[in-house]
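DM between two lab members

TW: hey, do you still have the Transcriptional regulator entry open?
JB: yeah, one sec
JB: this one, 936 aa:
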Amino acid sequence: MLRDLKEPGRPRPDLVVGRDDLLSGAREQLSRGGSVVVHGDTGIGKSTVLRTLAAEYADQARTVLRCSATESESHLPFLALADLLGLVADEVSDQLPAPQRDALESALTGRGESTLQRDGLALRLAVLSTLRALAARGPVLIVADDLQWLDSASAELLGFAARRLGELPVRMLCAVRTETEPRGPGQGRHLRALPPDTLTVRVNPLTRAQVAELLGRRGYTGLSRSTVREIHRTSGGNPLFALELGRALAESPTPPRPGEPLPVPTSLRALVLSRLEMLSAEARRTLLVASAGARPTLSLLHAAGRGDAETETAEAARLGLLAPEREGPGVRFAHPLVSAALYAEAGAAERRAAHAALSTAASDPIERARHLALATTGADPAVAAGLGEAAAAARDRGAPSVAAELGLLAARHTPADAVPGPDVRRLQAAEDALTAGGHDLARDIARDVLGRATEPADRVRAWMVVIEAAGQSIAEVDAVFPQALADAGDDPALLAQVHYQLAWRALVVEGDFAECREEAAHAARLAERAGIRRTGLLALALQAQTETLMGHPDAPATIKRALREPQDPQVACHHNGAGAARFRWLVMGDRLAEARNTITALLREVRRRGMVESEVHFLRGLAETELRSGHCGRALDLARESLRLARDSGIGEGASAMQTSLAEASGGDVDRALALAREAVRHAEGDGDLMYLSLALGALGQARFVAGDAPGAVAALRRVRELEESLKVTDPARGRWQGDLAEALVCVGEHAEAQDVIDAARERALRLGRESMLAVLDRAEALVRAARGELDVAVRQLTSAQDRLAKLGHGLEEARTAYALAEVRIRRSEPASYDEAVRLFRRCRALPWLKRAERAAVAPVPRPQAAAAPAALAVLAATERRVAELVMEGATNREIAGRLFISVKTVEATLTRVYRKLGIRSRVDIVRLAAGHRTN
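TW: and the structure you got?
JB:
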């Protein structure tokens, strides 16, 4: 359907976005000596992928043969063959029999009349012999782009050779344009040049987040997220189309207003205009009406006055402009770009006529109001009122992004002296945009209003939008607070809003719980005096959340006050509302079943309302609940969903990365957990968010601990300890890092510090009644005692801790305790196994832990030590002694690393110190000590 549009001609590493899995599979195939063909639509990035792979593997080949076919030259026989072999044929021509040499020379130079019909066998054998001769000198890489334009003679000759190369080191790396699978019907002609076992890899469209990343890498950083969403929709995820749209927007003097199309550049219009020019005038008008409609159908086109819609859409379908609609009677464009180019090409009067027709045809009142607005020019109170009603209806339906668009259209048609005025409508649209996750659009609207508003209420409302739009980066809008306070004057209703935001600033920027609680309480009192229920409820909820994190005894009472009727429906399910505060209180109090029910109901409601930021928060909360319950697979799915939504909307990316890291470390991939934890730390540090920084460092410490890097875990978790002491965080159930730090300290031999961490956390957990934390701390203390040789006490303490965790429903912690219990029992030389730990980890789908337990289960059974060994090891530090004991048991360095949660390099370094202290030279000497022998 789309004509050829050349992709960039040079390697561009910055264009390789979202292709990691694709490249990984292709690399694996190439590393095995196989061939690869990448395929996909025009502009999808085939050539970029091809050049990336070719650049990586060119250094491994002695000979690289390249060709890039074009449509205009595809009728010329042997042209691709000349590109491939023209410069190397002379190097091996003396190794070819004369008939083959002559036939090949004639085909490559065109000086003879060589044809496949006349010299077919000689030419086929000549190409095969040439490739064999080149392969005998070293690996050969054939790189062929735009395989669909390969001339048929070259394709036949290459295919003949490819089928007969066998195990010779000749790899083919090709790209071909396809609209379906390359081996499907009608797609096989160009594949005859490839070996039969070639891997086919489809280059798929980019996601919205990947399009945003690509645009950012190319310098298009000033685009709002709503604009990026529209670029993604219009481009269909095609990177070349997205870049062209981004370039057009960057060059446009004014961005399009809501309801206006993106500026489609000439380079992209040319892809479809030639087909549009083949349409009849009536069919083109019908398609314009379809492009203006949100969900066009044949019945809608009929109602809009297009009486012959069936015939005209069939005409467009024959030209490839429309695609078959499999799910109903809808009219679907073959690519979103077709619709965009058609709409952009139409004149303003034509567009208004299309919208006017749809304003009477659409059955949905929201759609009718939108089309009427786009068909009307200038201020019109009736149109503005209708749009305001439509925006309210969209808000009630859970479509706040639609409400924001309609609100801006309403402001455009509202007379300056009307009530409500244009700026009031704009501010409502900004608040709708916030709800929908369009923080950049909301901020831009608010800044625009602040440029001319004089009413204190309008100005404070706009300042609140600016602060809300900053999200976790609230430090970046510090200068806003004095201006907002000045605009609020002595009005309690306006001051309540400002002090509510000051409470958040105290928490996020200063990390000061006491100040946050005081500001929130002050805001609640001001709101109550002014009769502003919504602000009062939000302030009470923040006060409750802060008191919960502080371990303050008033937290339950404050939650009850915040939940008291009458409730504001939107605040009730808001991520900063009383429901969220109660959820946090339930989770920290080990009431996991109630917490799950609460957060599930909240998530269902915010999805119904289209509250994107709240959805991101509640997905994280539900993931946290499932993780603590030991449902690691479910937690991982939820956390990944939260991260996808966060990256798509630009909301809470650091917090979602942190929660996903925790889920990956427990139920997924440890390397991915480490990468996500580092990302979360970068976000928190960049935002100046001390509260989330401690959580992000906690995730990093846990990921390092699970990865076997105990020293790295200690380093990260010590920073958490310092941060939380400075922030005066007293509740150990907030981050739950204390047990991991203590266990990591045991692994590195710091037993006294481990006990200090346990004692400090236990005192607070006892005061607050954090039962699961007490059990986890008991597990850590048991490991300290085991390291000191108090094995019987350690077994009793671990057995009790496991039973308590099982009753509380903390499945993963129960499994970890069973694993620790097996370790200690084996050290006590009693009959024991890891079967219970393996069973529990498998039930939790805790894959990293399961792998560790399974490795430990097949490790050699320890042998009883001779009486002389303990005395000989007395000079060693705790970790050194434990490593030496495991060597005596016959464990390898890797097995020791896995059992002690340290790296293999740490084991090797520890053994070096052991040899020096004991005056021995090798592992054999340690084994001799175990047998009671002296070493020389």
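TW: got it. Residues 1-11, 183-187, 862-869 have pLDDT under 50 and may be disordered. The two ends are 83 Å apart (CA to CA).
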